[in-house]
Design goal:
Elements lengths: L1 E5 L6 H18 L11 H6 L6 E9 L2 E10 L4 E7 L8 H15 L4 E7 L3 H8 L3 E12 L5 H9 L5 E7 L7 H10 L13 H13 L2 E10 L5 E10 L5 E9 L8 H16 L5 E4 L8 H8 L2 E12 H7 L3
Parallel strand pairs: 4-5, 10-11
Antiparallel strand pairs: 1-2, 2-3, 3-4, 5-12, 6-11, 6-12, 7-8, 8-9, 9-10
The structure holds coenzyme A.
The site of coenzyme A has 21 residues, from helix 1, strand 4, helix 3, strand 5 and helix 4.
Length: 328
């Protein structure tokens, strides 16, 4: 087996295609039903990071054929690793070798914690546990199949809000003149949910939006605006990807506490789905990791037709301990 580092920004298209084929092979084996990734924008998706982030990418090859990949994202305080191995090359130490590369890089870069996020029920859980990764968080993915949506009812929800609010849709993200009010709304509810990306200052928010666009991801935003003051009373964000246009990601939904109880959460999410139906013609479903136990968001999601799909597990391990175990 031969391991080589590669750079998604400069690699030939054949490397990107090898990564994509392996990823889709993994999806077919471990997560049937998951939309396969298309080639559109893959280079930008992989190569562009936030200004303060770095990444490392490795291939494991047999006879010139890619049989495993590892991707490492170096964030401020930790590294996040993903390892995938072709189903017909498993249990031969390919992932272990790739993990060792990622651990070496994380170690050299001064990160002391390595994280991994995996779909429950896949071999990845046993793999990370074998190297001492500890479960730190369990999230429930929920899916809304658009084929099950009652669009007439949704239209009613979208228009039924307390008087004094208007619901506005912004394809591509909030406009520049709303960035301050938008960041303020996010800040007010900071701590309510694990928000992603954590973009509370207008600057950070502008960077996040620019990064999303540069990666070929399209944010769609619906805001509830308090008409008298112009304040953002609530917002919901969905991100569509050219890589898998059939499935969009629900990001944050927040209603500022002073404006809760007026039906804004349901109205914003309903309006979002109505807009997405036209804006993203290939869209089949929307996924969210917002907790179904989080009242009142759970009620809103259930009313819209989101159903629990599968669990995702977040793991963490100490980099020095991993380095010792892997003989680095
Ligand atoms: C997890 C994965 C990367 C492991 O790849 P691999 O090359 O087979 O792993 P290795 O051979 O290096 O295994 C190293 C050790 O991990 C553990 N391990 C790996 N796969 C395991 C499995 N299916 N069951 C139990 N233990 C496992 C074992 O301890 C193994 O050592 P051993 O074979 O000497 O017992 C591979 O199964 C994969 O790509 N899975 C899908 C990834 C995924 O998470 N998909 C969902 C998206 S997040």
């Amino acid at each position: 087996m031969h391991v080589r580092e590669w750079n998604p920004a400069t690699a030939p298209g054949s490397d990107l295609e090898a990564w994509r084929l392996l990823y889709n092979e993994m999806l077919a084996a471990d997560m049937p039903g998951e939309p396969h990734w298309r080639a559109d924008n893959l280079r930008a998706y992989m190569a562009v990071t936030m200004p303060d982030e770095n990444r490392g990418d490795w291939f494991a090859e047999y006879d010139g054929r890619v049989v495993g990949v590892a991707d490492l994202l170096l964030l401020d305080d930790l590294g996040v690793v993903e390892v995938y191995v072709s189903p017909d090359h498993r249990r031969r130490g390919v992932a272990r070798t790739l993990l060792a590369e990622a651990v070496r890089r994380a170690h050299e870069s001064g990160r002391t914690v390595l994280g991994a996020e995996v779909a429950a029920g896949t071999p990845a859980t046993a793999f990370y546990q074998a190297y001492g990764f500890q479960l730190t968080c369990v999230e429930q993915r929920n899916l809304l199949d658009l084929a099950t949506v009652d669009w007439g009812r949704l239209r009613e929800h979208a228009t039924r809000t307390g008087s004094g609010y208007r619901i506005e849709y912004f394809p591509g993200g909030p406009p520049a003149e709303l960035l301050n009010a938008y960041a303020t709304a996010k800040q007010v509810v900071q701590g309510d949910w694990e928000l992603h990306p954590s973009s509370y200052s207008p600057d950070r928010l502008a960077h996040s939006l620019a990064t999303l666009h540069a990666r070929g991801l399209t944010p769609h935003v619906v805001c509830a605006v308090h008409s008298r003051t112009g304040a953002i009373a609530g917002l919901t964000e969905v991100v569509a990807s050219a890589l898998h246009p059939e499935r969009a990601d629900q990001y944050d939904t927040v209603v500022v506490p002073a404006h809760r109880g007026y039906g804004l959460g349901l109205a914003m999410k309903a309006r979002m789905l109505l807009e997405l139906r036209d804006a993203v013609p290939d869209l089949r479903d929307v996924q969210t990791w917002q907790s179904m136990e989080n009242e009142p968001m759970a009620r809103v999601n259930a009313e819209l037709g989101f159903v629990a799909d599968r669990e995702w597990h977040e793991y963490e391990a100490s980099v020095p301990a991993l380095a010792a175990q892997l003989g680095i």
